[in-house]
Design goal:
41% helix; globular; 2 domains; three-stranded antiparallel sheet; Rossmann fold; alpha/beta
């Protein structure tokens, strides 16, 4: 099913008029794809959906959650983490503490990946780590730090590639046991993050489109990967300006491997390695 442009705009305007959610500047392509799937799965047309979200708040929240669900994984794209470990973090060794924010953190695997890397570098104890997302369901999962083993088992290879192996030195190997950071229960099909990680991060619900900085911080690192790809050009630049205003001088912004900064904010960042640094 393909949706017409006016259908997508009608939905976005209706949602904005009856709720605090504003999808009017989301990428029409990605919004169309997700809405088409929902309509197909529910055997519903757009007019019926708009009527139902207008009458049923719980249904409205369900639709928003389905639209905004993003996938994530532990140590996604190991070369990005290699750049963080060997190229980027050494440039912050002069700082006594670090502030790290993951907007659009989804279910939190990337937040835990960052904390594991910070701990391996001896930086977690003096770091303040935050995560936010528009979807309260994924935040609940992130807070618990409990994941399906069979769904995530393949990502343990990423852990090995980032934490155990040094790609810059073929002879180097650190035998870091998984138990140092999480417990695997194959019988229950669960991975449980260790308490010291679960307790080291603060999560809050936040809508990047309209909300203010949810934490009383300016940040050294903002990790916002595979989020802005769902926004149109104008909204992307609003978000980049928002990030810029809440970053410390020289701070680092990590985007998805297929994301970049275009437009007026680009001149305020310098791209090095796999990151964008505030000038």
């Amino acid at each position: 099913m393909e949706l017409e442009k006016d259908q997508i705009q009608t939905f976005a305007r209706a949602l904005k008029n009856i709720s605090e959610y504003d999808f009017t500047e989301y990428s029409e392509k990605s919004l169309s794809r997700r809405l088409a799937k929902i309509l197909h799965d529910q055997n519903m047309d757009m007019n019926k959906m708009i009527t139902k979200i207008s009458e049923d708040r719980e249904y409205l929240e369900q639709i928003v959650r389905e639209i905004t669900v993003n996938t994530t994984e532990m140590f996604r794209d190991p070369p990005v983490w290699h750049a963080l470990r060997y190229d980027i973090f050494p440039g912050f060794d002069h700082k006594e503490s670090l502030t790290v924010w993951h907007p659009g953190c989804s279910t939190g695997q990337e937040v835990y990946s960052m904390m594991i890397l910070l701990n391996e570098l001896g930086k977690l104890e003096n770091a303040r780590v935050y995560g936010s997302d528009i979807n309260p369901d994924v935040l609940d999962k992130a807070r618990k730090g409990v994941y399906q083993y069979r769904f995530n088992v393949s990502y343990l290879d990423n852990f090995d590639a980032v934490i155990k192996v040094n790609p810059r030195d073929s002879g180097a190997f650190q035998d870091v046991p998984y138990e140092k950071y999480f417990h695997i229960d194959k019988t229950r099909d669960k991975i449980y993050m260790n308490d010291f990680l679960v307790e080291a991060v603060e999560y809050k619900k936040m809508d990047l489109v309209k909300d203010m900085n949810p934490f009383d911080e300016t940040y050294d690192f903002i990790i916002c990967r595979n989020v802005i790809i769902y926004f149109n050009y104008e909204l992307q630049n609003k978000v980049f300006k928002f990030f810029l205003d809440n970053m410390n001088p020289g701070a680092c912004l990590i985007l998805g491997v297929h994301e970049t900064i275009l437009g007026p904010c680009a001149s305020y960042f310098e791209k090095k390695f796999q990151a964008f640094f505030k000038k």
